[in-house]
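so my prof wants the structure for this chain in the C-alpha cells format not the other one, which i didnt know existed until like an hour ago. anyway here's the sequence
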Amino acid sequence: MEINLAVAENIQRIRKAQKLSIDRAAELAGISKSMLGQIERGAVNPTISVLSKLAQGLHVPLEKLVEQNEETQVVLHRGVDFPGQRLYGGKVIRYSLFPYDAESGCESSQLDIFISGVYELPDQIPGTRVYIMLISGTAEVCIGEESFLLEARDCLTFPGNLKATYTNKSNTTVRIIERIMYKQ
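here's what i got, hopefully its the right format
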C-alpha cells in the first residue's frame, strides 16, 4: 500500500474513532479543512510538519499516522502436508491443524483417540491455556483432580500447567480439537 493511502486510512480511522468531524479535527490540528480532506482522500502527501500537527491535534503518536498494517495473506494448510503422529502404541493420532504461530501465540491440533485409548497432555509452559472441543464420541477428561465426561460439541478450557488426560469412553473413535494459547 502506498504511504499516502495508509496515512489517509489511519487519520480517517482515528478521527472517526474519536467521533470528530473533519472541521473539528482540522481545527484541533491547526490546519485547513480542505487540507485534511485532501489528506484523508490520499490526494496529497502531507509534510512531516502537517503530520506532526495532526498527531498533536488527535492526541496520538506520530507513528500511528504513518504505520502500514498489511493484511495477513491467506494461508492454506493441507492435511496431506501434516501427517499424523502416532502415539501411545497407535491408540492416538495427533494431527497438526495450525502449527505454532508466533504472532497469535497459539497452535491447534486434532486428536483421534481410538477405542480404549488415552492421551496425556505433555507438560506445558506456565501461563498457557488449553481449549478443547469434542467433535465426536465420548471422552473422560481429567484435569488435575477433576474429571469431566464430554460428548460431541462439549468444550472445556483449563490452565496448561495442570496434568491432563483424555480417555476414550465410547465404542468409536473420539475426535478432539485442541488449541493451546501461549502467554505472550
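also thought this was worth mentioning. Residues 3-17 form the longest helix (15 residues).
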